[in-house]
Structure formats: C-alpha cells, structure tokens
Amino acid sequence: ENLQQLLHKETLNSGVPLEDSLRIQTPGLYWLRVRDRNDNAYSLQSYTVSVNFVPVSDANEPNNRYRDATAIVDPNQVLGLIHPNNDWDWYRFTVDQPQRIRIQVSQPGGIRPDLRLFDDSKAHLARVYARNFGETVTMVYDITQADEYFITVSGSGESGSSTEPYALTIE
Asked: What is the pLDDT of residue 128?
C-alpha cells in the first residue's frame, strides 16, 4: 500500500484541542492516526475525533481544456468552481458583431481569480487578475470581429482552490 502522510498536527500541552482541515483531491480510503507526541505516554481519558465532509461539485466539469470549454449562452452568467488546486475552467461564447464586452468574475471565495481572453485560434487577447483573495476582477475588451471567443478562469499563479462557486458574467 502507498501510505503517504497528508497532514500532521501536534500540540505541546496535554488537553489542548486540535482542529485542522484538509482538502482531499482523490476519492479513496483514508486513515487517521492519533498518538502520543513522543510515543512514550498514554491517557486513561477518552477523546473525540470528528470528521466533516463537504462535497464539491461543478456542473461545468470537465472544462479544463480548450476543446472542453463550456458554452455560455443566455443567460450570460455561469457559476463555476476552481477545485482542486491548479484547476483551469474554459468557457466559450460567440460574438455576432464588433462590440465592447465586459467580463467579470465575482464572488470568487478562496481564490485570487485570473481571467484570460482568447480568440478562436487560441491567440491570447487580454488578461486581468486579482491581487487579493476573494477580489472581483473585471475585463473590458473591444471585439473587432464576429467570432467565437474563449475565457479561462483560474486561481492566480495557478494556485488555490475554493469550495465556494464564483460567478462569471459577460455583458
């Protein structure tokens, strides 16, 4: 078996409660080990272990690649989720005539959103990203020709994930 330690937590003082969280990326069987800090003592007192599971689901997945981009049609807003770490969400939309568009990622929860715009040939057109976690980002871009366009949303620096959905809006 591949036994890999995912989290380690300890306290220097007895009786001090410990609390932590861990984002599990892969379904499977996981083990929890509780032991004395130095493996040289024991207690006759009972202890309690509580585990809470918060399921994460994104109806747009899989949309991690250009060819799997989720179509955005009416309404012009979609909810997405950056989860697990390093997730990239691809979206596509069609513009019928030259116009100024406004793209916004709001309610981004635990990520610093990174928003990028591409044309149909995958040429990078524009990018905006947040400097702070949970910050709303807005991109304004002048579309010069009717075509299909692509948007990516990720955590800035390709890091971070969130169990809270973001809202992507195109106007």
From this structure: 95
